[in-house]
Design a protein that fits this description.
single chain; alpha/beta; 32 helices; about 35% helix; globular
Length: about 850
């Protein structure tokens, strides 16, 4: 039997899941700065689909579902969004439980403290036009029916309270006649009963009794870890795992740092010195690029708190005694490439060894170092530990044993120093300590958000394909350990199994360089490449609802009525409908509704506050203008449905209810038809500034490693070194990219008859273009060619080879290319004219069709 997440995929398909609308009561009420990532959107879509549709394999009620999501992927954000959605569906009571107190404290801050940097909700939560509060309660007798009532507890405390009743504690009686949402974090701790085959008296049994107490109850579990080696657990979770987004996919999608193991023959003290030098390097590198970063180091003890306390004491003494001699020793003896790169950076910036010592001693003052070694310490320092990224948080070093392996949210951890040297693996298999180290590394691998230009996605890695870029050091976590080949092998295995690491041994580094003869051309020296930027969307030209896609001029509202009848359960009766029961309609223009009612309806929805309206409609200078203008509310009508008597007696309350529905409809239309960013007009840059020599990293034995001559299809194998039109030394692309280059080689003579200065450039992520919704696209190739006769016209053509399996997923990109081709923009620079155009996707199976379109585009 398949897992539930596979059943959903089989029943509905990826495209149908992607088309599920995530409602405004989720998107509008989560903190705007978070911004749902595609996989988080899918997490909501899957729940909505599972809840609303019938299908074979649908879980039985009461619902019990599990989200298997990687550490750092935003499980708490999904919890918050589902709470909002379930509130809208009528749920009011929520029970959050987890395995440890320190996670409780962190989660309380995320859910209840608007001043906390990781608070999950908007300043004001509004659902169905009404403000909703999140209230912490001790038991469900305190709950009210207007707000989200949230009880926090550990599973241990919940078990004790329910089985040893005392005053003010939660009891089984609390759950009778109340539908409840149970939310379990780090849920892999809660299945000991299932694993052992004996639920009786277990924590899990307690949760099951609560869950089963009401048919409408929902149990939502969240974990990064599912034990797939235990048959009982696999069977238990098969019909429950609604969404799987593991650490491997998290890393592939570039939401994590990359992991580097720095191993050396240094003793413990020199490993620490090397780490603090790299810590300073990251700080200064970030500062020089206008990035606000305070990198943190974790010093890891093996087993005991006493060891960790001694580590901290030794560290303070080292910092007090820190000297130029210590720095110079590392500079002279370290063979680690990033360490040598750091020293070259310091030299270029004029930061002397003496200055390095001063800055390191200032960074790691006693008060900037924190211990997190037992429950008391972890709780006492919880705020500091979970706000390490905040500007006013001074902590630069953390000393720990095991307490931070779970439930620790940290983005600016960049170095972990292992302060012990033995291993507990056997026969090449990682031991328990090594597995816990891999788990800790996984927590530290969360990406530190950074953006180098406006509109850039700050949550994903940017330099995977530019490995020589200095800023790549801000996307890497270094794990410092002593050189020990057996231990390193075991740690690598644990990291690879977790999905957060790919061994360097699986990759090869290639040199991609522009041919020397190309660098001598006038085109390279004086030519330009055109692309655009992602910029905040301008609403200056939005003058009416219609300009933002608000299509509904009439909103339908059914008036409540007491009309009803009784019929027999055993036989049908022919019923006659009296005149007073006939449903009729009446159109009411908004200008006919009292203005004070319209103003009250607007005041209930933050989207229609003036500061929000003026963002979308800059031409609106007041609420009165918004109400009175026919381009806005005055141009709308509401169609009321009801009996003749009800239509004669439409009350102020009826108007308000209808207006609330109309306004929600308008809001949904505006939001679905507008974005915060868009593509700018074209800008130009000199060719020689954009396209340069670079190093690239590709998987061994992959299609990309082979180059054009090594293509897996023999017909694509052509030598590029003697092709003047191909500007790089080789094409390390996919099989489709090699297919396109082969096609162009065959058609070159035809192009050459009409054009000169023909150059095909593979775009190694040097430029992006953005569509009208602000979506980024990196076309694989740019073709430049200049007309031989007539005016000096140079064509710049965007070209994207695309595998069959990706065409549907990337359809928007092909649509964008077609828009560029239809526009065929001409830009003049002095006496030169550039035509910016594009062609639809190249695919080997549509090669003849593509060739025809390309020739038509170039007017051959």
């Amino acid at each position: 039997m398949a897992f539930l997440y596979d059943i959903l995929l089989q029943e509905f398909g990826k495209r149908a899941i992607a088309q599920v609308t995530v409602p405004n009561h989720i998107t509008d009420n989560l903190k705007p700065g978070f911004g749902q990532r595609p996989y988080q959107t899918e997490a909501f879509q899957r729940f909505i689909l599972c809840d609303s549709e019938d299908f074979d394999g649908k879980p039985k009620r009461p619902f019990h579902l599990l989200y298997n999501m990687a550490t750092g992927s935003g499980k708490t954000l999904i919890m918050a969004g589902l709470m909002l959605h379930l509130y809208q569906k009528g749920y009011r009571n929520f029970l959050f439980f987890v395995n440890s107190n320190n996670i409780i404290q962190k989660t309380k801050d995320n859910f209840l403290n608007p001043q906390a940097s990781k608070y999950l909700f908007n300043d004001k939560i509004v659902i169905n036009g009404k403000e909703v509060l999140i209230k912490e309660i001790d038991n469900f007798e305190e709950a009210d029916n207007q707000n989200i009532n949230l009880k926090f507890t550990t599973i241990q405390q919940l078990h004790i309270d329910l089985n040893n009743t005392k005053e003010n504690s939660v009891t089984y009686e609390d759950f009778k006649d109340k539908k409840l949402v149970l939310i379990a974090d780090e849920a892999h701790h809660l299945v000991a009963g299932t694993k052992s085959g004996n639920l009786f008296g277990s924590w899990e049994d307690t949760v099951k009794k609560i869950h089963d107490s009401n048919f409408e109850n929902i149990l939502l579990e969240f974990t990064a870890t599912i034990d797939t080696d235990t048959a009982e657990l696999v069977k238990h979770y098969q019909d429950k795992v609604i969404f799987k987004y593991d650490l491997a996919q998290f890393r592939i999608d570039k939401y994590s740092k990359e992991i580097n193991l720095i191993r050396s023959l240094y003793d413990e003290q020199d490993r620490i010195i090397q780490a603090v030098i790299l810590n300073l390097y990251r700080q200064e590198l970030a500062t020089s690029n206008n990035i606000n970063l305070k990198p943190v180091i974790l010093f890891k003890a093996k087993k005991t708190i006493k060891e960790s306390e001694q580590n901290k004491e030794n560290f303070h003494k080292l910092i007090d005694d820190f000297s130029v001699t210590m720095v110079e020793k590392i500079q002279k003896t370290s063979t680690v490439s990033i360490v040598q790169k750091a020293f070259r950076f310091f030299e270029a910036k004029g930061i002397s060894a003496t200055e390095m010592v001063k800055r390191i001693q200032a960074n790691f003052r006693f008060e900037n170092c924190l211990s997190a070694n037992n429950d008391a310490e972890a709780e006492q320092n919880q705020i500091l530990l979970n706000t390490l990224e905040d500007e006013n948080n001074p902590i630069r070093a953390v000393f720990a044993v095991q307490k931070l392996n779970e439930g620790w949210d940290v983005l600016n951890l960049f170095d972990i120093v292992r302060l012990y040297e033995d291993r507990d693996g056997k026969n090449g298999k990682p031991g328990k300590t090594t597995l816990s180290e891999a788990q800790l590394i996984g927590r530290g691998a969360r990406y530190y958000p950074l953006a180098l230009e406006e509109g850039q996605d700050k949550f994903t890695r940017k330099f995977d394909d530019d490995i020589s870029n200095d800023l790549k050091a801000l996307e890497e976590l270094y794990y410092h350990t002593k050189e020990d080949s057996r231990y390193i092998s075991e740690l690598k295995k644990a990291l690879v199994d977790s999905g957060i690491y790919e061994d360097d041994a699986n990759f090869v580094q290639l040199n991609l360089f522009l041919k020397p003869e190309f660098k001598k051309t006038n085109f390279y020296r004086d030519g330009h490449v055109f692309f655009n930027k992602k910029v905040p969307k301008s609403f200056d030209n939005i003058k009416s609802f219609a300009d933002l896609g608000v299509k509904k001029t009439n909103y339908r509202h059914t008036l409540s009525s007491g009309v009803g009848r009784m019929s027999s359960a055993f036989f049908e009766m022919e019923l006659t409908i009296a005149d007073y029961e006939v449903i009729k309609t009446k159109d009411v223009k908004l200008i006919e509704i009292p203005t004070n009612i319209i103003r009250f309806a607007l005041s209930q929805n933050p989207f229609f506050y003036f500061d929000s309206l003026s963002h979308y409609f800059p031409s609106v200078d007041s609420l009165s203008n918004f109400i009175d203008s026919k381009d806005f509310l005055a141009g709308l009508e509401i169609t009321f449905s009801g009996t003749a008597n009800r239509l004669k007696e439409i009350s102020h309350y009826d108007y308000l209810q209808a207006l609330n529905g109309l306004l929600q409809s308008i809001e949904a239309d505006i939001k679905s038809n507008s974005t915060e960013y868009e593509g700018s007009d074209y800008i130009k840059e000199p060719i020689h500034k954009v396209f340069k020599d670079k190093e690239i990293r590709v998987q061994k034995e992959s299609e990309k490693e082979k180059g054009q001559l090594g293509a897996s299809k023999e017909e694509f194998r052509i030598p590029l070194e003697d092709k003047e039109w191909y500007v790089f030394n080789d094409n390390y692309g996919t099989i489709e990219e090699k297919g396109f280059v082969s096609l162009f080689s065959r058609r070159f003579e035809g192009v050459n008859q009409k054009f000169e200065n023909i150059y095909l450039i593979r775009n190694e992520r040097e430029i992006k273009i953005f569509d009208k919704l602000g979506r980024a696209f990196e076309p694989d190739f740019l073709l430049f060619c200049k007309q031989r006769d007539g005016e000096q016209m140079t064509f710049q053509v965007f070209i994207e080879p695309k595998g069959e399996h990706l065409k549907g997923y990337d359809q928007w990109k092909e649509d964008f290319l077609k828009e560029i081709r239809a526009e065929q923009k001409t830009i003049k620079i002095h006496t030169d004219r550039y035509v910016i155009t594009a062609v639809p996707f190249y695919n080997y199976n549509n090669e003849n069709e593509f060739k025809t379109v390309l020739e038509s585009t170039l007017k051959l």
